[in-house]
């Protein structure tokens, strides 16, 4: 099975759920460390596909390689640094038939990837917030080893709470 | 005429705080403290062989701070008499010491029903375990042992030697921590209970004073 087809896994067609006139549809979160190993994966909604652990590991390392290749293959190097929070190269978004994938790479090479159904609002906000939760709940935890799989209960709880909050109220309006 | 010390180690920590005391109090970010404390825990963890030894090391790290906090607060307070009664020194710890260290008094001070020499100080949001997730193979470890070391230092310095241990107790139904200061973190599922067990001579002396 060619690797790229992994990204086109379609969620079961239950249609877009609506809640308070917002289209819900976060699917999954996965986090890849700077060497390409998967350190976290989590379903974010009921439509998330069931993916086995080994497949998740494959997805993680494949995405890592594709991200690196895309950075090299880009015909344009943007002048200056347009992204104040993270690295400014590599895959940022993939739009496929049944899903949208957004990736945020930090300056240390950790990649946060969120997939969602097309039309889901606030993906970028959620991605940034998950990064903040990672710095709070994983990096400040004395029992978390860097680059290892994230087993911090506080992190998983916080991510679930975040998704719940965003689906109910949306991001805080400035 | 005094000049600000030029050596960075002699200068006060942190920049100006926010709020009403910003002109007099220096403030350090909670993140900075969290990272420093996380390193302290990791440092000790790499040198111990058991959970209880780790807790004991954290307690002894906090003990020295307790002695100094007692000196500082006594020096700064308007009271010129030192506490000689048990209940008063416990009130001092749960109100004054907590307020000066964490900005708010301890959430409750209780006396144990089963043992006359045991008291409990409860904190719903201990500073040392805000971001900590204890893995299941470390069982009952409480990283707040550092705070219990501080309490033990204060009590020992005041002449009330006690054994203080930190326990993580699951919150009961209906018990909630008062509005989390950090709204992005999920509400805590447990509170920290500091069990203070006084030495028998302290109890004897205190009951003797009662007459």
Features:
heterodimer, A: 174 residues, alpha+beta, 5-stranded antiparallel sheet, 7 strands, 20% strand, B: 211 residues, 4-stranded antiparallel sheet, two-stranded antiparallel ribbon
Which protein chains are joined by the largest interface, and how many residues does each one contribute?
A: A-B, 21 and 21 residues
Structure summary, number of beta strands of chain B: 6
| Cα-to-Cα separation, first versus last residue of chain B | 54 Å
List low-confidence stretches of chain A. Answer: 1-16
Descriptive overview:
The complex is a heterodimer of chains A (about 170) and B (about 210). Chain A is of the alpha+beta class and about 170 residues long. Chain A has three helices and seven strands. In chain A, the strands form two sheets. Chain A has a five-stranded antiparallel beta sheet. In chain A, strands 1-2 form a two-stranded antiparallel ribbon. Chain B is of the alpha+beta class. In chain B, about 40% of the residues lie in helices and about 15% in strands. Chain B has helices at about 30-45, 50-75, 85-100, 145-155, 200-210, and strands at about 15, 25, 110, 120-125, 160-170, 190-200. In chain B, helix 2 packs across helix 4 (about 145-155). The longest helix of chain B is centred in the first third of the chain and has 26 residues, at about 50-75. The chains are: A alpha+beta (about 170), B alpha+beta (about 210).
SSE order and pairing:
The complex is a heterodimer of chains A (174) and B (211).
Chain A (H helix, E strand, L loop, with lengths): L16 E3 L2 E3 L1 E7 L5 E6 L9 H21 L19 E3 L4 E6 L5 E6 L6 H16 L14 H17 L5
Antiparallel strand pairs in A: 1-2, 3-4, 3-7, 5-6, 6-7
Helix pairs in contact in A: 2-3
Chain B lengths: L14 E2 L9 E2 L2 H16 L5 H26 L9 H17 L5 E4 L6 E6 L21 H13 L4 E9 L19 E9 L1 H11 L1
Antiparallel strand pairs in B: 1-2, 3-4, 4-6, 5-6
């Amino acid at each position: 099975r060619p690797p790229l087809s992994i990204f086109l896994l379609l969620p079961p067609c239950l249609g877009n759920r609506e809640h308070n006139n917002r289209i819900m549809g976060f699917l999954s979160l996965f986090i890849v460390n700077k060497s390409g190993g998967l350190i976290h994966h989590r379903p974010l909604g009921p439509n998330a596909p069931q993916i086995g652990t080994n497949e998740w590991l494959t997805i993680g390392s494949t995405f890592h390689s594709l991200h690196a290749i895309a950075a090299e293959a880009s015909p344009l190097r943007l002048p200056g640094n347009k992204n104040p929070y993270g690295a400014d190269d590599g895959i940022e978004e993939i739009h496929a038939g049944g899903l949208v994938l957004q990736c945020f790479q930090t300056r240390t090479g950790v990649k946060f990837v969120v997939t969602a159904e097309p039309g889901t609002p606030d993906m970028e906000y959620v991605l940034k917030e998950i990064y903040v939760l990672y710095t709070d709940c994983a990096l400040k935890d004395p029992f978390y080893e860097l680059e290892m799989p994230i087993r911090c209960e506080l992190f998983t709880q916080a991510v679930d709470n975040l998704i719940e909050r965003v689906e109910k109220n949306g991001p805080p309006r400035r | 005429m005094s000049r600000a010390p030029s050596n960075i180690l002699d200068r006060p920590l942190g920049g100006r705080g926010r709020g009403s005391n910003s002109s007099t109090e220096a403030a350090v970010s909670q993140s900075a403290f969290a990272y420093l404390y996380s390193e302290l825990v990791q440092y000790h963890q790499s040198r111990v062989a058991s959970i209880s030894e780790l807790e004991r090391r954290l307690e002894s790290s906090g003990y020295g701070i307790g002695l100094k906090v007692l000196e500082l607060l006594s020096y700064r307070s308007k009271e010129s008499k030192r506490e000689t009664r048990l209940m008063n020194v416990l009130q001092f710890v749960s109100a004054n010491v907590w307020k000066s260290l964490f900005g708010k008094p301890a959430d409750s001070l209780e006396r144990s029903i089963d043992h006359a020499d045991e008291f409990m100080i409860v904190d719903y949001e201990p500073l040392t375990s805000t971001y900590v997730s204890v893995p299941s193979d470390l069982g009952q470890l409480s990283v707040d042992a550092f705070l219990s070391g501080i309490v033990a230092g204060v009590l020992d310095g005041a002449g009330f030697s006690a054994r203080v241990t930190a326990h993580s107790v699951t919150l009961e139904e209906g018990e909630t921590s008062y509005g989390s200061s950090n709204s992005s973190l999920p509400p805590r599922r447990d509170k920290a209970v500091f069990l203070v067990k006084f030495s028998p001579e302290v109890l004897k002396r205190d009951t003797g004073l009662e007459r």
